[in-house]
Amino acid sequence: xxxxxxxxxxxxxxxxxxxxxxxxxxxxxxxxxxxxxxxxxxxxxxxxxxxxxxxxxxxxxxxxxxxxxxxxxxxxxxxxxxxxxxxxxxxxxxxxxxxxxxxxxxxxxxxxxxxxxxxxxxxxxxxxxxxxxxxxxxxxxxxxxxxxxxxxxxxxxxxxxxxxxxxxxxxxxxxxxxxxxxxxxxxxxxx
Length: 191
Description:
It is a single chain. By secondary structure, this protein is an alpha+beta fold. The chain has a single domain (about 50-185), classed as tt1808, chain A. It is built from 4 helices and 12 strands. It has helices spanning about 20-25, 50-70, 95-100, 120-135, and strands at about 35-40, 40-45, 70-75, 80, 85, 90-95, 110-115, 140-145, 150-160, 160-170, 175, 185. The strands form 4 sheets. Strands 3-6-7-8-9-10 form a 6-stranded mixed β-sheet. A two-stranded antiparallel sheet has the order 1-2. The chain has a two-stranded antiparallel sheet with strand order 4-5. A hairpin with a 4-residue loop joins strand 4 (about 80) and strand 5 (about 85). The longest helix is centred in the first third of the chain and has 21 residues, at about 50-70. It starts with 18 loop residues before the first helix and ends in a 6-residue tail after the last strand. About 35% of the residues are buried.
């Protein structure tokens, strides 16, 4: 986990002369909708019940270790400074101290990011977000691919992507989360 990078601008501070900050400020003030920016395209977040079911099943399995890690789990804002990207992952595990004070976190401030694919955005989660999360050093990225009925765990991020991939594994195959988690995620009821 890191401190804000040099040149980082708080997305909550409005500066009309900075288009990136202005766009990210505006996206946070759309009433009634949760909205992401993916490669400069504004996308509303409106998950289906099946999508939410998969995310909640993973959440329940992670909750027992959160106290030990002094972490929280949620679907808060994730900023990718220097890009026109503003994500709302389906789940992110983050340190309590960061979660209680942050308007948005950076991917490298998370311990785990989970994305669950939908019919409308599967390739975004499989390709674009995986690449961007690696570039911004999210240590673990769990992709729950409901269309392919599989899960993949990506680790060891770098500018060229994740160097380790565990999967894809068909639903029903446990996914081992490394330390600090040290648990296996049951994937049989995610689809």
